[in-house]
Amino acid sequence: MYQKFDLKEKLRFYVITDRRMSDEVKSVRLAIGGGATTIQLRIKDASTREIISVGMKIRKITRDFNVLFIVDDRVDVALAVEADGVHVGQDDMPLKMVKRIAPNLIVGVSASNLKEALKAEEEGADYIGAGSIYPTVTKKDAKILGLASLRTINDAVKIPVVAIGGVNHQNVVKVLKSGIDGIAAVSAIVGASNIRESASRMRTLIDNYFRETR
Amino acid sequence: MYQKFDLKEKLRFYVITDRRMSDEVKSVRLAIGGGATTIQLRIKDASTREIISVGMKIRKITRDFNVLFIVDDRVDVALAVEADGVHVGQDDMPLKMVKRIAPNLIVGVSASNLKEALKAEEEGADYIGAGSIYPTVTKKDAKILGLASLRTINDAVKIPVVAIGGVNHQNVVKVLKSGIDGIAAVSAIVGASNIRESASRMRTLIDNYFRETR
To answer: Mean of the pLDDT values across residues A107-127?
Structure first.
């Protein structure tokens, strides 16, 4: 997989599913229609068979549209549906284990501080999901990282950094100014009444920023 | 692994954890002390990291005592903690996917009827968990298989069959008379006030049955 694309490019606009806001398959289709470059499937509280069933549908759509497909937490599901990668938080499988049992997956790691980010890079993470940048309705207990720390993390690691947590159309340019490679969003996209339009506006903001600055 | 032991022998007395009844690590230690030959770790509603942490402790104990170690549902956890196998129900990962992503794991499959059992054998299952034999407090919505159907399944497949669901000290001999290779228990063992003593009595009943009949 790695040879086929530039990971940084793919991580520019990273959309995460949330069934409390919208059906996964439907929201993925609309988000990709609006310009999402990476999709993360995040489902808790469903049977493995159901997660796999949804994952297979998303694998098909993402492959058809050349979008990166990452599965949250579940390495077994990522392998079963042939996702491109898996994203692990600090409560998920330790990175070293992921690398051992799934050496061919792209692995993203959540970091809420510099120490976690440096450890993840050292252990072989392919990218960092840094956050929460702002308070977010999706994870009410999330630690707030803030933009200054986001910049510190981004300056400290060589692997791509995606900012997550409370990023929306209003603040996305400010977040991108910290020098990161992409932004991840849940509610700003899959919680929107018009998911495709919301994704399209976000993609335009991101593209305009990168066109003007890099 | 396969070459190192007789799977049928190992499946004779199969104890499944349940944190609603007793701490997993503690109950595993006591059940093995009482004679369990297989341990299945079954945890829902915990983070992957927590399941792995418990699983690593159980891997150590089961290895020390030469007991088979099976993880319920989670193929990723089974691979990460180097369990001997994984057990999948009809709501878990489809067997063919399990065999593809984890070709070296022993795979058990739940069957509540003959059709499911035959399909599992055909697709490469290593053993069948047939049940529920009786109504059980652990899975209130479980389909009841009954002893006649258990015998039908056991006669129809070549792979080992373990009976599960409501098996206790009172009915275990009756269940074994259907010709199966082992019994699995949750509440009769890990729900007992004295887990070690309960396991020891069960093991004696099983051993006596096999000594007298086979």
So the answer is: 97
Q: Does residue A4 have a pLDDT over 70?
A: no
Q: Report the predicted TM-score, pTM, of the whole model to 2 decimal places.
A: 0.95
- Mean per-residue pLDDT of chain B: 95
Q: How many CB pairs under 8 A join A and B?
A: 62
Cβ of residue A46 closer than 8 Å to a chain B Cβ: no
For the CA atoms of A198, A199, A203, A204, the dihedral, rounded to the nearest 10 degrees, stands at -30
Give the burial string for A101-127 (b: 16+ CB within 10 Å, else e).
bbeebbbbbbbbebebbeebbeeebbb
Of A27, A37, A58, A20, the C-alpha closest to A138 is: A20
Judged on CB neighbours under 10 Å (0-12, 13-18, 19+), A135 is: exposed
Domain boundaries, chain B: 7-213
Its CATH class, for the domain covering A7-213, is alpha beta
Q: B45 to chain A nearest CA, in Å?
A: 8
* Probe site for chain A from B59, B97, B104, B109 (most A CB atoms < 10 A): B97
Contact (CB<8Å) A91/B52: no
Measured between beta carbons, the chain B residues lying within 8 angstroms of A47 are 91-92
Q: Pick B93's closest partner by Cβ from A49, A73, A91.
A: A49
**Which chain B residue's Cα is nearest to A82?**
B101
Confidence band, pLDDT 50/70/90 cuts, at residue B4: low
Nearest one of A65, A114, A70 to A92, comparing CA atoms: A70
Backbone angles phi, psi at A176, to 5 degrees: -60, -30
Tell me how far apart the alpha carbons of residues A148 and A178 are, in angstroms, rounded to a whole number.
8
Tokens 């051993």 belong to residue: B207
Tell me if residue B111 falls in helix, strand or coil.
strand
Closest listed residue to residue B182, CA positions, set B213, B201, B210, B142: B210
Give CA–CA dist A130/A160, Å, rounded: 10
